[in-house]
Structure prediction request, 291 residues.
Amino acid sequence: MKQRRLKSKGAKKAFWKLTLLIGALLIVVAGVGTYYYDQGVQKQKIAYEKQVDEARNAKDKAYDSRKANDIEQAHKLIDKLHVKDKTSLDKSMSQLTNYLSEIDKVNQIVAKAHENISEEGIKSSEEALELLKAPYEKSDKEALAKQVNADKQILIERQKEAERIANVQNQYANKKLIALTFDDGPNPNTTPQLLKILSDAQVPATFFALGKQAQACPQIIKEEADRGNEVASHTWDHKDLVTLSPDQQKQEIESANQLINKITGKNVTLFRPPYGSYNKSVLKSNKFKCS
Prediction:
């Protein structure tokens, strides 16, 4: 009996030792599992934070470049985020779309007004500029305002020129007059002599210059204007405008006008089509009086 009791007591002791050992092992295993689980969660968290940073950087790049492919890339990265982050960045991208839409709208209004400068067009441009109120739109607004102000100055100069012409017309109304005009120049061999003769006689004239010749002899163009003569446009290189497309007509006329304006510091107000040949599209391409 005594031996049985000792054996039973030893078995119980062994059982409790085994139980404690198993418990300890379970605690260790649970601890290790928790550690690796936490490590996995941390890695996922770091990876997601990196994903969020990439989406934010893509959004910032889209704001800076305004390119369609950058905007599309930003949307793709944002769509992969959790709802909270996605909602915030989606809102920012929607705002960018609104900004670009407003800027484009105002751009179109200002560009259209610039094509045919008028008081009405300038007024429409100034009203449109008031739509651009956000800090993001500031640089666009300043650039467009600069264009509008330049157009206003051109309009003022044209109005002054129109008043001057009206005064001259009133001054010489009902009088017999002769207008001297010279086409196709300047010619480096003959135009300087002609300018001297006109100046000595105190007789002004109108020179319908070719842009190609003006480019070759800019100093003569400047002298023509400085001596009190009118320098007008005869297109770039004397093509028959009726044989050209509307875009080609516009290029022929405007390239000459722009160069003459640059050389003389004055705006061209008259235009003479080569061969006296023109049609409706020529008149549409040309903003000035045809002679």
Summary: The radius of gyration is 41 Å. The mean pLDDT is 87.
